[in-house]
Amino acid sequence: MHELLAAQRDSFMAALPEPLALRKDRLKRAIAMVRDSATRFCDALSEDFGHRSPEQTMVTDIAGSIGPLQHALKHVDRWARRDRRGVQFPLGLLGARAWVEYQPKGVVGVIAPWNFPVNLVMAPLAGIFAAGNRAMVKTSEFTPATAALFEEIVGKYFDPAELVFVSGGPEVGKAFAELPFDHLLFTGATGIGRHILHAAADNLTPVTLELGGKSPVIVGDSADLAQVGQRVAMGKMLNAGQICLAPDYVLVPSAKEEGLIDSLKAAASAMYPTLLGNPDYTSVVNDRHYQRLNAWIDDARAKGARIEVVNPAGEDFTATNSRKMPLHIVRDATDDMIVMQEEIFGPVLPVRRYDGIDNAIAEVNRRDRPLGLYYFGRDEGERRRVLDRTISGGVTLDDVVFHVSMEDLPFGGVGPSGMGAYHGRDGFVTFSHAKSVFKQSRLDVAKLAGLKPPYGAATRKTVARQIGG
């Protein structure tokens, strides 16, 4: 890996400055790499998960990758323009100028997760390539078929000095994070993110962490419960809930709890009238995660929760080796249950009652700041109060998850849910060095302002103007 990094950095330094035409060409080649192998990626992902809907993969990982790359291709000329800045009086009048130039950083490391293992490689590459960088990508060991496909096809589209893929387990991941990259992007669990930050610290590598957390849904008193049920159920059951932005728990006014539960059940049943043989419904990725989810459900049940399983066809999940799991609604969830302590990452949805919007806000605020927050309701004052009184990476109003798909919005967390952001122009800026440039006037400004010894009246006049009074 050190040799790969050295080769990329040597190539980068020899090529500076990276012309926009080459950046656009890389974006086009990245689009072609995904588009040409779209069907193979669908097959690989289904193999990795045990079953994954090919239509879902086409939406989330194929179209979801090509979209950001096309967006960058369309806008990179504008993003890369120098940004003119003002200069203090009277330097501008004397001919001085200031601006910011956006330079590529060099080689960017990307550590990708398993839940969207194409999208969460290719979407960051949109900003990385638009900014003029090279990239090394560490794929997840939980999706080996997808990782192997990347390694097989990349050479058709990219020289190793531009883009290379590395696979392997935790030891490889640790060594990868310790490489002296010019920037490192990690997407994954908060606990692993802490280790990544420690690994990067010795090289003072700038790090963007896209983590997770318990993203809450606040159901306002004015919310349309049918709409809430449909949209929360879709966001929770997409990819079997294995999404960093999946709604992790729901806060609902006490008087509306029964209506919400009924709406969630109806929506889940309409989307997935059967589960085991349903090609639209994805499996839990591996046995370890499947066992973890069942253990957390058992923990909640043992501590007094009511578990409502949405199984409209009455299928027997114990008589199959499938890791498909129906939606489990956890009612009467309490803080001592693991489902209210850890990010769930599966089709398990705790529901908690509240009385008064300030109590719902307090419930959110006593937990770590989440990656996403979702509010449903028509009360503008209440909506504004939720936005003003909570802090989260991003917000979707009257739906869940969708803010992540807006390329002109920065995507990132805050506190334990992450640091830094990318997508669109924000990604271009993240993976660029904003270099300040100041061009001085032809006049001897330092002498005119009394900044050169011997100091005197001009110096005192300049200082008085600067400090006021």
How is the topology of this model organized?
Blueprint: H1 2-15, H2 20-36, H3 38-49, H4 54-79, E1 83-85, E2 97-104, E3 107-111, H5 119-130, E4 134-138, H6 144-157, E5 163-166, H7 170-177, E6 183-187, H8 190-201, E7 207-210, E8 216-219, H9 225-237, E9 249-253, H10 257-271, H11 287-302, E10 306-310, E11 327-331, E12 348-354, H12 357-365, E13 372-376, H13 380-389, E14 394-397, E15 418-419, H14 424-430, E16 432-439, H15 445-448, H16 457-467
Parallel strand pairs: 3-4, 3-6, 4-5, 6-7, 8-9, 8-13, 9-12, 11-12, 13-14
Antiparallel strand pairs: 1-2, 2-16, 7-15, 10-11
Helix pairs in contact: 2-4, 2-5, 2-6, 3-4, 3-6, 4-5, 4-14, 5-14, 9-10
Unreliable segments of 5+ consecutive residues: none
How many helical elements? 16
Given the C-alpha coordinates, what overall shape results? globular
- Which structural category fits the helices and strands? alpha/beta
Beta strand %: 15-25%
CATH superfamily of the largest domain: Aldehyde Dehydrogenase, Chain A, domain 1
CATH topology of the largest domain, by name, is Aldehyde Dehydrogenase, Chain A, domain 1
CATH architecture of the largest domain: 3-Layer(aba) Sandwich
Query: Would you count the extended β strands for me?
Result: 16
Strand order of the largest sheet: 10-11-12-9-8-13-14
Q: What is the CATH class name of the largest domain? A: Alpha Beta
- Tell me the Rg in angstroms: 26 Å
Main beta sheet:
7 strands, mixed
